[in-house]
């Protein structure tokens, strides 16, 4: 078995592990409990079943801007277990998306968990739909259900694979084109300088502009990573 095969088998095993446990997160006045996998040494890992470092960054951003979302709608890309989307749903209706069926399953469980078990606060309407970046059929299905598009597109820590960055921003561009004045809020975690540069270049390639939100830059994952929030819009 090659190194690539071993890595693929490892990732496959991660995605088929469904031994979820609840964990509570606090963002300002908001408290959210979600089911997620427990990693052996950290709560962060390379799968949508784990809560990623960027969720902390996005949570801090959203929890201090509740007024911004009143009367608006949002779609989250790469929602994973749904922590970011469920926090946003405290403020406005949200569509949460992911490409993986197993991840969508736990995402839907977490939506139900908010009303059946957690009962921490009322949430707006939440829809969970499949979306693989670059898949026009998936996107069309979402827009058929939500023809007016969305005011905000959200993404927390979703630029970890360079190969997926062009597809991500192609999808973002298509979503921004549906509604005039829409914005993509990206909680970005810097891991590799090459990815940092690729993200900036891909934003420009898609005729968009990215602005770092003031005061959002912070250390994450026990100081081993740094992240910040980009607000990205059409030119």
Automatic annotation (TrEMBL):
InterPro entries: Methyltransf_16 (IPR019410), METTL22 (IPR038899), SAM-dependent_MTases_sf (IPR029063). Transmembrane segments: none annotated. One of its GO terms (cellular component) is nucleus. One of its GO terms (molecular function) is protein methyltransferase activity. This is Uncharacterized protein.
């Amino acid at each position: 078995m090659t190194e690539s095969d071993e890595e693929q088998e490892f990732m496959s095993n991660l995605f088929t592990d469904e031994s979820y446990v609840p964990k509570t997160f606090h963002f300002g006045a908001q408290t959210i409990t979600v089911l997620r996998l427990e990693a052996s040494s950290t709560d962060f890992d390379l799968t949508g079943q784990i809560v990623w470092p960027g969720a902390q960054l996005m949570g801090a951003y959203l929890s201090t801007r509740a007024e911004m979302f009143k009367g608006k709608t949002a779609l989250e890309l790469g929602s994973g277990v749904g922590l970011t989307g469920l926090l946003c749903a405290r403020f406005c209706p949200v569509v949460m998306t992911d490409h993986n069926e197993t991840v969508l399953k736990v995402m839907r469980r977490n939506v139900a968990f908010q009303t059946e078990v957690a009962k921490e606060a009322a949430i707006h309407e939440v829809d969970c739909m499949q979306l693989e970046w670059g898949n026009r059929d998936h996107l069309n299905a979402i827009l058929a259900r939500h023809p007016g598009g969305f005011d905000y597109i959200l993404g927390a820590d979703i630029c970890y694979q360079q190969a997926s960055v062009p597809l991500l921003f192609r999808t973002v561009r298509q979503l921004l084109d549906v509604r005039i004045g829409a914005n993509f809020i990206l909680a970005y975690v810097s891991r590799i300088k090459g990815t940092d540069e690729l993200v900036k270049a891909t934003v420009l390639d898609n005729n968009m502009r990215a602005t770092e939100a003031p005061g959002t830059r912070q250390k994450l994952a026990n100081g081993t990573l740094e992240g910040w929030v980009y607000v990205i819009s059409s030119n």
